[in-house]
Specification:
With 604 residues, the chain is an alpha+beta fold. The chain contains 16 helices and 38 strands. The strands form 15 sheets. Strands 24-32-31-25 form a four-stranded antiparallel sheet. Strands 33, 34, 36 and 37 form a four-stranded antiparallel sheet that branches. Helix 2 crosses helix 4, helix 6 crosses helix 7 and helix 14 packs across helix 16. The longest helix is centred in the N-terminal third of the chain and has 27 residues.
C-alpha cells in the first residue's frame, strides 16, 4: 500500500497527516449495476469490497494521525541526544533544563584545567580564564533543527554536538604567555634613508600561535577531556621581500637621483635630494603592507627658508605651562601650497629621470587647531607626572638624545579618541634630526647606535600616560632589566620596528609637557582629571636566573656591562573612581639575564 500525504496545521499548530489518495494495485474494481426503476439495487460482492476499503482507509487515517502526533511531540525530534542526554520529545525549555542538569553532573570535568602544549612548552589553561563554556540555548536550538518529514522523526537517531564558546582574545593572551620566549615578533618591511641612501628592511615572519585555529583545537580538547597541542606558526607581513626590492629600484633610488623643481604663482623652489629623502616615507600598516607617501610637513622642514619665502605657514593654537597653569598660545592663518596635492604630484614624478617638475598653487591655509577648538578640549589641570634620572650630565651623547626627544614631543596635543605614536611624531631619529651615537641594545648586547638613550624618554612618557589612566596600545619592555626604570612598566623603542603608542580614551584633550635638568627627564600630562587614583601593585619576582660572563674583543665598539639577573614579574594597574576600583589591568614581562660583558680576551 502506498500513501501520498501532505501535512496540514492542527489547532495547536503541530502538523498531522491527511490522506489524499488510496490505491489498491492488487484489486480491480468491478462495475456496479444501476438500480432498477422503482427499487433499490442489491449490494453484491463489489459493495462488500468498498465497505472493506472504507474501513481500512479509516484505520490508516487514525494511525497516521496518531503517528504524526507522536513524531511531532515536543520541539526537539525524538532520538536526539547531546552529551549522551536524550533531549528528544521535549520542549525547548525542558531540553535546556535537562542539558543544564547534565552539565552540572559534569562540572568537575568541565572545570578541570586543560593540559596544553604550545610549541615545546607545556602549560595548563583554566576553562573559566579563557571563557570556555557551553551555550545551552544555542545547543538546544541546534538540536531542535530537524527534518520535517514524520518518518525521519519517528525512526531517526542523531547526536548533536554542543555549541562551545571561547573568548578568543583571552585565549590568545593565555597561549602567548604559555609560548614564552619561543615566539618572535614580526619584522615589518621598510625603506629608510641614511642621508640620501635608501636602505631596505626586509620582512621577517612572526613565530606565534594561530588564535583562530587554536580556538577549535582547544574547544575539542576541552569537551573530550584530552590534552591539546597548539603548534607555533609563521605569520608573514603582507609586503614581500620582492616587493621591497621593487619599491627600492623603482621609487626610492630614482627619487633621490636628481632634484625636483616646484613652481608656484609666487616663484620657484628647488627640492634637493636631501629634502626628498626627508619627506619620502615608506610606512607599513598593521598587516605589514608597505605604502610610499610624501610627508609634506617633513618636506617643508627640510626646505626651510627656501619654501618659507613663498609660503606663510599656519600656526595651530597651542598651550604652554606658565605659573602652574595652561596658557593659550594663539594660532594664525597662512598661505601655502595644498599639502595633499603636492604630496600626490611629487610622488608621481619621483620615479622619473626627466620631467621632474611639479606645479602648485598657493592657497589660504587655516590652522588645524583653532583657539575655539582648543578651548573645547578641557585641558585645565595636571593629571599625571613622571620623572626618571639619567647619569652623565647633559654633556653625554645619551643625555642629549633624551633631551632632543623631549623637545620633539613637548607641547603635543592628543585629541579624544586619537592614538599618539612616538615614532610617528618624531619620525626617524638620525643625525640630521639632531641625534647622536650612544649605547643601544642590539642582538642582546650594548653597541653604539644613533639615538641611544631615547628608550629612557620612552619609558618616562609611557609612565606618564600610564598614571594618567590612558589606554596602552603598543609598548615593549627591554630585554634586560635596568634598575633606573620601574620593572615591567617601562618601554624600549627602535626605529622603525618598535614603537610606543597610547590612545586618549577620555572625552578631554591631553597636553604632553616635558622638562629636564642636568640629571632628570620629566613628562607630565595635562587634561581634566577623571580618576581618583592610578596605582601599581606588583606580584613577586619569579624564575630568577643568574647572568653569565661573556668576554668580547676589546676595541672602540666594545661596551662592558656589569650584568643583571633575569626574572619574570606581574604588575597590576589599579584605577579608582568615586572610591571604587573601576579597572585592574595586568602587565607581565620576563627579563633575560643580562650577561656580564668584559672587553678582554678570556683568561687562559
Amino acid at each position: 500500500m502506498t500513501l501520498y500525504g501532505e501535512k496540514v496545521p492542527s489547532a495547536d499548530d503541530r502538523p498531522t497527516v491527511k490522506v489524499t489518495a488510496v490505491s489498491w494495485p492488487d484489486v480491480e474494481p468491478e462495475p456496479v449495476a444501476a438500480p432498477a426503476a422503482g427499487g433499490p439495487g442489491k449490494p453484491g460482492r463489489s459493495r462488500r469490497r468498498m465497505l472493506l476499503a472504507g474501513g481500512i482507509v479509516a484505520a490508516v487515517v487514525a494511525a497516521g494521525t496518531g503517528l504524526g502526533t507522536y513524531a511531532y511531540a515536543g520541539d526537539v525530534p525524538r532520538g536526539t541526544t547531546v552529551l549522551g542526554t536524550e533531549l528528544g520529545g521535549r520542549s525547548r525549555a525542558e531540553a535546556a533544563r535537562a542539558l543544564d542538569a547534565e552539565l552540572a553532573r559534569r562540572a568537575a570535568t568541565l572545570n578541570a584545567p586543560i593540559a596544553v602544549t604550545v610549541g615545546e612548552k607545556r602549560a595548563e589553561l583554566k576553562p573559566a580564564d579563557v571563557g570556555l563554556a557551553i551555550d545551552v540555548d544555542a545547543t538546544v536550538a541546534a538540536a531542535a533543527a530537524a527534518e520535517a518529514h514524520p518518518v525521519s522523526r519517528l525512526v531517526g537517531s542523531r547526536t548533536v554536538e554542543p555549541v562551545v564558546t571561547v573568548d578568543t582574545a583571552r585565549l590568545e593572551t593565555a597561549l602567548r604567555t604559555a609560548m614564552g620566549d619561543q615566539g618572535r615578533e614580526m619584522t615589518m618591511p621598510a625603506i629608510i634613508f641614511t642621508g640620501t641612501t635608501p636602505k631596505p628592511v626586509y620582512p621577517k615572519p612572526a613565530l606565534t600561535v594561530d588564535a583562530a585555529g587554536a580556538a577549535g583545537v582547544v574547544k575539542a580538547g576541552w569537551l573530550a577531556g584530552e590534552p591539546v597541542t597548539v603548534p607555533l606558526v609563521e605569520k608573514w607581513p603582507a609586503t614581500t621581500r620582492e616587493e621591497v626590492e621593487r619599491l627600492l629600484a623603482e621609487l626610492a633610488r630614482p627619487a633621490v637621483a636628481a632634484p625636483v623643481t616646484l613652481t608656484t604663482d609666487g616663484g620657484k623652489v628647488t627640492i634637493p635630494p636631501a629634502a626628498i629623502a626627508r619627506g619620502l616615507r615608506f610606512a607599513a600598516d598593521d598587516t605589514g603592507k608597505l605604502t610610499p607617501r610624501v610627508d609634506v610637513k617633513r618636506l617643508r622642514a627640510a626646505l626651510g627658508d627656501a619654501l618659507a619665502k613663498l609660503e606663510v605657514a599656519p600656526r595651530d593654537a597651542g598651550l604652554t605651562i606658565s605659573g602652574g597653569k595652561p596658557k593659550v598660545v594663539p594660532g594664525r592663518a597662512g598661505r601655502q601650497v595644498d599639502a595633499t596635492a603636492l604630496g600626490r604630484d611629487l610622488l608621481a614624478v619621483l620615479p622619473k629621470a626627466d620631467g621632474r617638475t611639479v606645479t602648485a598653487a598657493l592657497k589660504p591655509a587655516e590652522p588645524e587647531l583653532t583657539e575655539a577648538k582648543l578651548a573645547e578640549l578641557g585641558i585645565k589641570e595636571r593629571v599625571s607626572t613622571f620623572t626618571t634620572r639619567f647619569p652623565g650630565g647633559l654633556s653625554s651623547p645619551r643625555s642629549q638624545n633624551i633631551v632632543q626627544a623631549a623637545k620633539d614631543v613637548d607641547g603635543a596635543i592628543v585629541r579624544p579618541g586619537e592614538t599618539f605614536s612616538l615614532n610617528g611624531h618624531t619620525g626617524e631619529r638620525g643625525y640630521d634630526q639632531g641625534y647622536k651615537d650612544a649605547p643601544t641594545i642590539v642582538g642582546g648586547k650594548l653597541v653604539p647606535g644613533v639615538g641611544g638613550g631615547v628608550s629612557q624618554f620612552t619609558t618616562t612618557l609611557f609612565n606618564a600616560s600610564y598614571y594618567a589612566g590612558l589606554q596602552d596600545v603598543e609598548h615593549k619592555p627591554h630585554s634586560f632589566y635596568f634598575s633606573r626604570y620601574p620593572a615591567v612598566i617601562e618601554s624600549t623603542i627602535y626605529w622603525p620596528q618598535l614603537d610606543f603608542k597610547f590612545r586618549n580614551n577620555t572625552p578631554y584633550g591631553v597636553l604632553i609637557d616635558t622638562s629636564y635638568t642636568g640629571s632628570t627627564i620629566t613628562v607630565s600630562m595635562w587634561s581634566t582629571k577623571i580618576y581618583d587614583s592610578v596605582k601599581t601593585e606588583y606580584g613577586p619576582r619569579r624564575n630568577i636566573t643568574q647572568p653569565r660572563t661573556v668576554y668580547l674583543d676589546p676595541g672602540p665598539d666594545c661596551i662592558s656591562a656589569a650584568g643583571s639577573v633575569g626574572f619574570a614579574q606581574d604588575a597590576y594597574r589599579v584605577i579608582k573612581k568615586d572610591g571604587k576600583v573601576v579597572k585592574r589591568e595586568k602587565f607581565s614581562w620576563r627579563y633575560d639575564p643580562e650577561p656580564r660583558f668584559i672587553c678582554a680576551k678570556p683568561p687562559a
